């Protein structure tokens, strides 16, 4: 767990916040915004995979969200703001639905 809380909820909320900040707070071009959103979504999926069990569920879900983000960013004629709003909505739904199916991976404690 991250700070005693659920890692899926925290990482999904952070990625949603980053998506909104990248879109509305940084002076990036449309392509830079799309690339940033895709990279951060992939990183969020990797962190969720690493911090939850069973890893197959979070891994497949993370791959799906990352691929869909990349497809939406580079395969659809959308603006940077639209892709950021899509990523925000997708990560919030992803976080809520995935949390029902995974558990936080317990940290291994050192033998004292």
Q: Which helices and strands, and how do they pair?
A:
Elements: H1 7-25, H2 30-51, E1 52-53, H3 55-75, H4 80-99, E2 103-104
Antiparallel strand pairs: 1-2
Helix pairs in contact: 1-2, 1-4, 2-3, 2-4, 3-4
Distance between the termini: 21 Å
Main sheet record? 2 strands, antiparallel
Trace the largest sheet across and list its strands: 1-2
Which structural class fits the helix and strand makeup? mainly alpha
Contiguous runs where pLDDT drops below 50 for at least 5 residues? 107-112
Radius of gyration equals 15 Å
- Work out the helix count: 4
Task: Let me know the average pLDDT.
Answer: 81
Shape descriptor: elongated
Helix percent reads over 70%
Beta content comes to under 5%
Overview of this structure, please?
It is a single chain. Helix 1 runs antiparallel to helix 2, helix 2 (about 30-50) packs antiparallel against helix 3 and helix 3 (about 55-75) packs antiparallel against helix 4. The chain has 4 helices and 2 strands. Helices cover about 75% and strands about 5% of the residues. The chain has a domain at about 30-105. By secondary structure, it is mostly helical. A two-stranded antiparallel sheet has the order 1-2.
Characteristics:
mainly alpha, 112 residues, elongated, single chain
In short:
By secondary structure, the chain is mainly α.
């Amino acid at each position: 767990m991250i700070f005693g809380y659920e890692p899926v909820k925290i990482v999904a909320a952070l990625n949603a916040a980053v998506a909104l900040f990248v879109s509305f707070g940084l002076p990036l071009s449309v392509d830079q915004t799309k690339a940033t959103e895709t990279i951060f979504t992939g990183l969020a999926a990797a962190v969720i995979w690493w911090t939850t069990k069973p890893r197959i569920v979070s891994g497949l879900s993370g791959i799906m969200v990352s691929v869909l983000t990349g497809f939406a960013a580079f395969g659809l004629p959308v603006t940077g703001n639209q892709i950021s709003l899509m990523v925000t909505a997708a990560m919030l739904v992803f976080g809520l639905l995935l949390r029902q199916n995974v558990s936080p991976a317990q940290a291994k404690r050192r033998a004292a």
